[in-house]
Amino acid sequence: MPPHAPLPPHEIGMTPKEATALRTFAVRKGVDVYVRDGGPTRLAHVGASGTRPKPAGLYNKTDKTGGHLGLVVTGPGNALDDHSGRAFDDPGSVVRDKHGNSVHGDIDLQRMDRGGQKLPAIKYIQDLNAHLRTFSETARPRGPEETYTALRVRTSDKVQHGAHDEWEERNSMTYNGGRNAGPLPGVTKFSGNPRQRDEHYSTTAEYRQELRRKGAESTYSATAYAKGAQRDTAVQNPHGNPVTISKAPMFPKIGR
Prior knowledge:
The radius of gyration is 17 Å and the shape is globular. Strands 5-4-1-8-9 form a 5-stranded antiparallel β-sheet. The protein has a two-stranded parallel ribbon with strand order 2-3. It has a two-stranded antiparallel ribbon with strand order 6-7. Helix content is about 15%, strand content about 10%. The longest helix is centred in the first third of the chain and has 14 residues, at about 15-30. The protein is an alpha+beta fold. Strand 4 (about 110-115) and strand 5 (about 115-120) form a beta hairpin. It is built from 4 helices and 9 strands, in the order αβββββαββββαα.
């Protein structure tokens, strides 16, 4: 494979329909969509009844090795960590919402970019989720569909929060001990230019080079890049949510 060739969708935790939908959205809108690798265990739950994508503010991880692969769980030394305000509970270690739905991985964005300028979530998230609903598997949680947060995401939406590059704490070395600072490999770029191929960046260094090419290297501070350099090893086993986010990104409220 040539350098940065995109990986097969199942290796980065996407269905073929999701990858195609992200690619067509990028071309139709003329934006570059950068998506963080997800866990392949997520795939068994995409489009299944009685489960929903993981919302912002729910910080427990998905099970990657135990008896509930791909679902958000608790366990010994891993209590429920819910700041979403959506009334989650953890009967029997599997985290569930108030309607009994289990929770699987959402689609995490690294960046939305047009001409080297990152786009704020309020500019794209509703259109992107509508596109994913139309052209990929649709989540089917029990209970009424709810719309919540300033971004007006829905219970079933696959993209539940803004991109990492627009997160206000992306350069902080004090927030959660700096664990979240810097870019998060690996990342797939779905190009908004139909004449350019999609690319995959396996390391923070490769992603920094991409930002430099676009004139956007200042997205991260030198200190944050140095912290991110600790992740500069090839992603051999792509996985979702490689770091802990202990609060939701803050974005301006949407007016009526």
